[in-house]
Amino acid sequence: MKLEYIVVSDLDGTLLDHHTYAWNAAQQALDLLKLRHIPLILCSSKTAAEMLPLRQALDNHDPFITENGAAVYLPAPGSDDNNYERIEFGMNRADILSILEKIKRSAEGKKFCFTGFSDISLSELMAATGLDEESAGKAMQREFGEPLQWQGTEEDLKEFQQILNRLGLDTLQGGRFLHVSAGCDKGKAVNWLKNYYHEKTGLYCQVIALGDSENDISMLEIAEFPVLIKSPVKAFPALSHEHVLRTTGYGPVGWNEALLELLNQKQGTQ
Question: In this model, does residue 101 exceed pLDDT 50?
Fold first, then answer.
């Protein structure tokens, strides 16, 4: 049986430059994926509202994963990319916000210093991320998780995370924000998609996964070929995997280099 691959990629700081959000440095590898008909699964902390125009700009028509694995979107066969089947894994955002508000009001929670998307204005989010007004508005259209700006100490953060865990919530550190969610991570969503492709094609697909932050670890751990993209603002997150590749180039430059190397190697072994 022919061996097939699917590529799963984080966006900010990985396929997209951390500062400019540009991906043009990855164009050569993007073209090679299309040439070889290898699916590119965009897997991000971004909302569906953010990812839809990005997929259009990239001419990407494959399934995609939103809000750190909270939902998988499957384009309907023969559709114009406006119809999707959505598979949900994450807790509703309203329920998460309710739990966070209870923590804020509690005696032990009053010492925790954090600001969520629900607490800030559009202009404040623009200043924190460098996004334009339209993009920032789409980033606020969250359905499952809540990104936080942590302003307290590391010691208080550990206590805060312990409280969240006791209440059934999880935290993942992204490139800019601490993401609070429940019942989901990128690894679970990618594993579901891997099984989906097997059922759809009958082929056993191996995963090439690319990411730069702690919230990417779960998908990198289950990938056959994980790639850690070098970040201009932080060190590589810890990852124990015998096949891990760490790039020397930042963001889309490293993304391009790693994928060209891996895909050319794999082509030579088939």
Answer: yes
